[in-house]
Amino acid sequence: MSKKSWFSNLKCRECGRLYDKEAIHICEFDFGPLEAAYDYEAIRGVLTREVIESRPKSMWRYRELLPIDGEPTVGTQVGFTPLVKADRLAKKLGIRELWIKNDTVNYPTLSFKDRVVSVALSRACELGFKVVACASTGNLANSVAANAAAAGLKSYVLIPANLEQGKILGSLVYGTNVIGIRGPYDQVNRLCSEIAGKYGWGFVNVNLRPYYAEGSKSMGFEIAEQSGWKLPRHTVVPMASGSLLTKIHKAYKEFIDLGLVEKSEFSIHGAQASGCSPISTAFKKGTDVVRPVQNPETIAKSLAIGTPADGYYAIRSMHETGGSAEDCTDEEIVEGIKLLAEYAGIFAETAGGVTVASAKKLIESGKIPAGESAVLCITGHGLKTQEAIVGKVGEPRVIGPSLREFESLVAEEVALKS
Amino acid sequence: MPTIRIPTPLRKLTNNEEVVIAAGTTLGAVLDELNTSYPGLGERILDEHGGIRRFVNIFVNDEDVRFLQEKETPVTEKDEISIVPAIAGG
User: Which residues of chain B have a Cβ shorter than 8 Å from any chain A Cβ?
Assistant: First the structure.
C-alpha cells in the first residue's frame, strides 16, 4: 500500500465546514458532530474487490475507507468475524433467510467495540497521545483496556459503578485504571467531556470520536463482502447512541458509490430495550426530536444511553432506507438470548437479545416481510452479561459417578426418543 | 450570579475562561447576558428560532434542562450551569 492518505478532512455533519484532522469532535459553530471525509475519487482508482480479497482477513482490508494517515498500529487483527447462515433460527422466527453477523467472537475482547478502538487508538498514536481513555457501558472499556495494554499506552476507563461483574473484571485484568462513577452512563459521559477538555488525553468517544465512530463501518463492509458483494435486503442493528446504525448505513452507501456493490434496495432497522428506548420511541411517534431518558432501567446495560448523541441521524437513516425501530422488554431480551443460543448456537450478551427479540417483532408485524432476507448484527458475547440469564436457563442435574444413576435419569428421555 | 462552565470548543470566545458568570433569574436570561459579554456565544448554543441546538446539552447543577423547563428554568446565584456537547459512546 502506498503512503498516500485517502482521509482528507474532518467535516461537520450539520453545516459542512471543514476542519483539520486533529483531536476534535464537534463543530465550533453549531456543535454538530465532525465526521471523516475522504478523497473518494482517489479511492475509486485503487480499491477494487480483487484488491480487498487479496488482503488479510481483518477490518483493515478496507483501510482506504478508515480515517488514519499511515498503516494501522493498534488492533491490526480485529474484525472479519463470521457471517453465519442461521436456518433453524430463520424457521423459528418465520423468515425465509436469516444471517447472523457474529461479533461475539471479535478479537480481542469479544464485541464490535474492538473495531472502533482499533481505529481510535491507531489514530491516537498518530496524534501523539500517551494516555487514552473512554466513557463506557462496558464493552468499550474492555476494548480500550486490552488494546491500550497491547500498544503500551496508559489508559483510564470510566464506567457506571453498577456494571456487570464480567465487564468490570474484563477491564481490570488488563491493568487499566477503572473508575466507577455513581450514576448512569450519561453522567459518566458528561464528566468525561469535562475531563477531556481539561487533561490532554485521547478520549476515544470524545475528542477521538470522529475516528472511533468510523471503525463501525467495517461491520457493514464485511456484511456486504460476505454476502457475496451484495447488500442485504434488511439489516437489524442494536442502538445505544445510534452510531453503529448510522455507520453501517454509511458503509453500504460508500460501497455503492465506489461500485463495489450494485445499487439495490436495502432497509436498516434499529433495536432498543424498552427500559431505555429514546430513539425507537421518537421514531414510532414520527418525530426526529429524541427526548432523553433520565433513568434507564434495563438489563441491556450496554445499550442504556439515555441521551443518544446520534439518535437524530439514526432516525434519519431508518427513514431514508425504509427501515423501522422496535424495542423489547427484559423478558423478551432473555427470550432473544435463548433463541439465538438454542437455534443458532451463538451466546450473545443482552444487546444481542435485544436485536433478536426486536427482529422477531419486526418479522411478526410484517415490517420485515417473511419472504425476504435479513442480517442481524450481534455485537457482544454472552459471557460478559451472565447475570442476565442466571436462573433462567435451567440448572444442571447432579448425580453420582454411577451408570445406574445416569440411566435412571435419562431412561424416560431415551424411551421417548426411540 | 450563576456560574457557567464553558466547553473547550467555545473557550475561544471566552478568552479561554473555563468558568464564567452571568446575571439572570432564568436560563434564557443568563444565556442572553452571556451573549452580551461574549459576543457570538449565543448563536453557537441557540438555533435561529432561539431553541437550544440539537447537539447541545445544558445542565443546571446536574439536571438536563430538557427535564426542567428548558430556557425557562429558574436559576439562582448558587447554581452551576454546564454547557456540554452531545457525545457518543457505549
Answer: 5, 7-10, 12, 18, 44-45, 47, 53-57, 59, 62, 64, 66-67, 82, 84-90
Q: Residue A310: its chain B contacts at CB < 8 A?
A: 88
Q: Measured between alpha carbons, how far is A411 from A413 in angstroms, rounded to an integer?
A: 6
Is position B72 within any domain? yes
Owning domain of residue A303: 83-109+216-389
Closest-CA distance of chain A to residue B90, Å: 5
What pTM, to 2 d.p., does this model score?
A: 0.94
Report residue A323 as a C-alpha cell: 427501515
Which set of grid coordinates corresponds to residue A330? 427484559
CATH number of residue B53's parent domain: 3.10.20.30
Q: Residue B22 class from Cβ within 10 Å (0-12 exposed, 13-18 middle, 19+ buried)?
A: buried
pLDDT digits (tens, 9 = 90+) for B22-79: 999 999 999 999 999 999 999 899 998 989 988 888 999 988 898 899 999 999 999 9
Task: Among B18, B44, B87, select the one facing A193 at the smallest CB separation.
Answer: B87
Contact A312/B9, CB-based, under 8 Å? no
The enclosing domain of A198 has a CATH number of: 3.40.50.1100
pLDDT tens profile A104-159: 999 999 999 999 999 999 999 999 999 999 999 999 999 999 999 999 999 999 99
Give the number of other Cβ atoms within 10 Å of residue B28's Cβ.
18
Overall domain count for chain A: 2
d(CA A55, CA A280): 38
Does one domain contain both A44 and A65? yes
ipTM above 0.90, yes or no: no
What's the total number of domains in chain B?
1
* Residue B90 counted as domain residue: no
Does B16 reside within a domain? yes
